[in-house]
Specification:
This is Dynamin-related protein 1E. The chain is α/β, with parallel strands linked by helices. Helices cover about 55% and strands about 10% of the residues. The strands form 2 sheets. A 9-stranded mixed β-sheet has the order 4-3-5-2-6-1-10-11-12, with helices on both faces. It is rod-shaped and about 150 Å long.
Length: about 675
C-alpha cells in the first residue's frame, strides 16, 4: 500500500511536470492532465487572513504582503516533511538548482517571478509559480494559493480584473477530468439496475460523451450501493474556504463561491480566522459546531499573528504555540481545542488529500493511457521533426519525392482512379474527332473538279490525274494534324491533373508547402517537355503519310479503267461528273485507310512520348537540380507550416508529460 508521503509526492512531481511542459489547465486544444490531479485550492477574499493561514501551516513567514491584490499568479505550494534536525529550505521550479534557506528571499523571488510574467502593472496570470518547502515542521501537503477575491479593482488595474480573478478561482475549484470515451464504473452492489438508472440520469448533466461499461463485483454478503467509484467525473479540487470570524459569514466571498460550485459541501473545508479579534461577548461556536453554515467536514478555527506580531517578525513556531494556548485556555473553544488551529488543519487536509488521490488514481491512469494513444496517433499523422543535417534533409526530400511518384504511378497503372481517362482519349475522343473531319466538303464534286483542273494546268491529264490526286490527298491528310495535336493536349492535361491529385494524396508532403510547390513545378515542366516531344512525333506521323503515298493505291487505277471500259475515251469524258466522283471516291478510300492507321499509331506515339516518360523520368531533372543545392536551400524546401510545427511541439511536450506521469504512478505501489 502506498504511503501518504509517496502518493502526495507523486502528485507533486506530476504537477511540476505539468507546469514545465505547459499544462496548467484552462481552455486548451490539447488533453490536460493538470485538471485531473487532486489539489487543495485556498480561496478567500482580500484581508481574510489567507496568507497568514498558509504561513502558519508552513511555520515560516515567506509570502508577499501589501495592500490591494498581492497574489497575482497561482502559487502551488508543495510541502515535504523531512527528518527532525534537517535544515529547512525552499526551491522554486523555475530555479531548480537554487536552495533558499533565507525565507525573506523566498518572498522576494515570488514577487520578482510574478512581475516577470505579469509586469508591474498589477495584471494577473494563470501560469502558476511552483514552490517546494522541505521542513521537519510541515506535513506532506500541496496547497494552491489563488488571488484573493475582490469586488473592486485597485489603482492601475482594469475593471475586468475582478471578473478575471473570479474566473481563475472558478477554473480551479470547479476543475474535474472531463473525459470523453468509455465511462468505467467499478461497483459492488446487488441492485445494479436501480443504480444504473439513477446514475444515467445523473450522467446527463456531465460534460463529455460516454459509453457505459460496467465492471460488477457481487459481494458475498448483501450489499446495496455499498460503494462505487465513478472515474474521472467528480471535481478533483478540495476547497479551503477562508473567512474572517469578525465579519458576517453571509457576505463571505469564499463561502458564496464554494456553495455555488460545491452545494453539498462535500469538498469544502471551512476555515474561520481572526477568532481572537471578534467583538467582546461574541463567539463563533454556532459555525464551528456545525449549526450555522454546515459543511460535510468540520469547520476549523485559526488564530493568526496580529499585525504587531508581523511587524515585529514574531517567529511562526512561537505563533503556533500561542495559537494552541489560545484554544486550550479559551472558555468558549476549549472543548474544541484538539480540532482547532493551523497544525490540525494541515494534518486534516493532508489526510483527506491522500484519500482523494488514492480514489482518483485509477481514473487518472485511464485518462493517461487514452491520452498517450491519442497524442501518439496525432504525432504519427503530423510526422517527425525535420533533421538539421543537410544529408538527412536531402534523404527526406528524396523519400518524399518517391512517395509522390509512387502515388502518381498508381493513378496511371489503375491502383488509383484517373489513368483510365487516358484510354478514354484514344477510345472515344480521337475516333470521334476523326469522324468529324470535313472530308465531305473537301471531296465534294465542286472541290474535286477545281483541284484536279488546277493541277492539270494547260495540259489535261491523259489517264489518271496524278497531280490532282496528290493535291487532294495532301489536303485531306492535313486535317489529321488537328485530332493528333488535340490527343496530345488532352493526355497532357490529364497528366497534369494526376500530378495535382497525387501531390494532394501524398500525406507526407502536406507538411511542406514549399516542397509541394517545387515538385508540382518540376513535374509540370517535365510534362511540358514530354508534350512537345509527343507533338513532334505525332505530327511526324501525319507528315510521313503525306510524304509517301501507298503505291498499290495508284496501281489499281488503270485496272479500274480497263474494267470500266474504253481507255481512249475523249477528253470531254474525263471531265464529266462521273469521272470526278470516281476520283473523290478513290481519295476518300485512301484517306480512310490512313485514318485507320493513324487511329492506331497516334495513341502509340502519345503513350510512348508522354505516359511512359512520365512514369520513367517525371522528376529526373528535379533530382539533378537537388544535387546542386546547398544546405540552406534544402532547408528552405522543408519549410513547414508554422502552425503545424507549433502543434507538433505542443503534442510532443504533452506526450512527454503523460509518459512521465505514467512512470510516476508506476513507481508508487498502491492498493487497487
Amino acid at each position: 500500500m502506498a504511503t501518504m508521503e509517496s502518493l502526495i509526492g507523486m502528485v507533486n512531481r506530476i504537477q511540476r511536470a505539468c507546469t514545465v511542459l505547459g499544462d496548467y489547465g484552462g481552455d486548451t486544444a490539447l488533453p490536460t492532465l493538470w485538471e485531473a490531479l487532486p489539489s487543495v485550492a485556498v480561496v478567500g477574499g482580500q484581508s481574510s487572513g489567507k496568507s497568514s493561514v498558509l504561513e502558519s501551516i508552513v511555520g515560516r513567514d515567506f509570502l508577499p504582503r501589501g495592500s490591494g491584490i498581492v497574489t497575482r499568479r497561482p502559487l502551488v505550494l508543495q510541502l515535504h516533511k523531512t527528518e527532525p534536525g534537517v535544515q529547512e529550505y525552499a526551491e522554486f521550479l523555475h530555479l531548480p538548482k537554487k536552495k533558499f534557506t533565507d525565507f525573506s528571499n523566498v518572498r522576494k523571488e515570488i514577487q520578482d517571478e510574478t512581475d516577470r510574467v505579469t509586469g508591474k502593472s498589477k495584471q494577473i496570470s494563470p501560469i502558476p509559480i511552483h514552490l517546494s518547502i522541505y521542513s521537519p515542521n510541515v506535513v506532506n501537503l500541496t496547497l494552491i494559493d489563488l488571488p484573493g477575491l475582490t469586488k473592486v479593482a485597485v489603482e492601475g488595474q482594469p475593471e475586468s480584473v475582478v471578473q478575471e480573478i473570479e474566473s481563475m478561482v472558478r477554473s480551479y475549484v470547479e476543475k474535474s477530468c472531463h473525459y470523453s470515451g468509455d465511462l468505467i464504473l467499478f461497483m459492488e452492489t446487488r441492485d445494479l439496475q436501480g443504480f444504473v438508472s439513477v446514475f444515467e440520469i445523473y450522467a446527463t448533466s456531465i460534460p463529455g460523451k460516454f459509453s457505459f461499461k460496467y465492471f460488477i463485483s457481487f459481494a458475498s454478503v448483501p450489499l446495496i450501493m455499498d460503494k462505487f467509484l465513478v472515474l474521472g467525473l467528480q471535481p478533483n479540487c478540495l476547497i479551503l474556504a477562508i473567512t474572517p470570524a469578525n465579519q458576517d459569514l453571509a457576505t463571505s466571498d469564499a463561502i458564496k463561491l464554494s456553495r455555488e460550485v460545491d452545494p453539498a459541501g462535500d469538498r469544502t473545508f471551512g476555515v474561520l480566522t481572526k477568532l481572537d479579534l471578534m467583538d467582546k461577548g461574541t463567539d463563533a461556536l454556532d459555525i464551528l459546531e456545525g449549526r450555522a453554515y454546515p459543511l460535510q467536514h468540520p469547520w476549523v478555527g485559526i488564530v493568526n499573528r496580529s499585525q504587531a506580531d508581523i511587524n515585529k517578525n514574531v517567529d511562526m513556531i512561537a505563533a503556533r504555540r500561542r495559537e494552541r494556548e489560545f484554544f486550550a485556555m479559551s472558555p468558549d473553544y476549549g472543548h474544541l481545542a484538539g480540532k482547532m488551529g493551523s497544525e490540525y488543519l494541515a494534518k486534516l487536509l493532508s489526510k483527506h488529500l491522500e484519500s482523494v488521490i488514492r480514489t482518483r488514481v485509477p481514473g487518472i491512469i485511464v485518462l493517461i493511457n487514452r491520452s498517450i494513444d491519442e497524442l501518439e496517433a496525432e504525432l504519427d499523422h503530423l510526422g517527425r521533426p525535420v533533421a538539421i543535417d543537410s544529408g538527412a534533409q536531402l534523404y527526406t526530400i528524396l523519400e518524399l519525392c518517391r512517395a509522390f511518384d509512387r502515388i502518381f504511378k498508381e493513378h496511371l497503372e489503375g491502383g488509383r482512379p484517373g489513368g483510365d481517362r487516358i484510354y478514354g482519349v484514344f477510345d472515344n475522343q480521337l475516333p470521334s474527332a476523326l469522324r468529324k473531319l470535313p472530308f465531305d466538303r473537301h471531296l465534294s464534286l465542286q472541290n474535286v473538279r477545281k483541284v484536279v483542273s488546277e493541277a492539270d494546268g494547260y495540259q489535261p491529264h491523259l489517264i489518271a490525274p496524278e497531280q490532282g490526286y496528290r493535291r487532294l490527298i495532301d489536303g485531306a491528310l492535313n486535317y489529321f494534324r488537328g485530332p493528333a495535336e488535340a490527343s496530345v493536349d488532352a493526355v497532357h492535361f490529364i497528366l497534369k491533373e494526376l500530378v495535382r491529385r497525387s501531390i494532394g494524396e501524398t500525406q507526407e508532403l502536406k507538411r511542406f508547402p514549399t516542397l509541394q510547390a517545387e515538385i508540382a513545378a518540376a513535374a509540370n515542366s517535365a510534362l511540358e517537355r514530354f508534350r512537345e516531344d509527343s507533338k513532334k512525333t505525332t505530327m511526324r506521323l501525319v507528315d510521313m503519310e503525306s510524304s509517301y503515298l501507298t503505291v498499290d493505291f495508284f496501281r489499281k487505277l488503270p485496272q479500274d479503267v480497263e474494267r470500266g471500259g474504253n481507255p481512249t475515251a475523249s477528253s470531254v469524258d474525263r471531265y464529266a461528273e462521273g469521272h470526278f466522283r470516281r476520283i473523290g471516291s478513290n481519295v476518300s478510300s485512301y484517306v480512310g485507310m490512313v485514318a485507320e492507321t493513324l487511329r492506331n499509331t497516334i495513341p502509340k506515339a502519345v503513350v510512348h512520348c508522354q505516359v511512359k516518360e512520365a512514369k520513367r523520368s517525371l522528376l529526373d531533372h528535379f533530382y539533378t537540380q537537388l544535387g546542386k543545392l546547398e544546405g540552406k536551400q534544402l532547408a528552405q524546401l522543408l519549410d513547414e507550416d508554422p502552425m503545424l510545427m507549433e502543434r507538433r511541439q505542443q503534442c510532443a511536450k504533452r506526450l512527454e508529460l503523460y509518459k512521465s506521469a505514467r512512470d510516476e504512478i508506476d513507481s508508487v505501489s498502491w492498493t487497487r
